[in-house]
Amino acid sequence: MLAVEPVLTPLEDLMSVPASEGFSHPQPRPRLSVEELLAAKNTQPIRSLDDLAADTFESDEELEEFLAFTYAERRRDAA
User: Which domain of life is it from (predicted)?
Assistant: First the structure.
């Protein structure tokens, strides 16, 4: 006589696996304080607004074109 094995659905298959052999959860990372995270990235405090200044646009015209495009896209997405 032939032996017939039961066919398990994916959920039944998972339920038949002991919890220790089932899903593996990622190991938690050690908790670091804000100061430790900042030190690891060698960050420095912002001392003035000049620290944030960047020459993103080469001219005032380029900035105006960017702003016009941005406002037009916002209006288009709102419609």
Answer: Bacteria
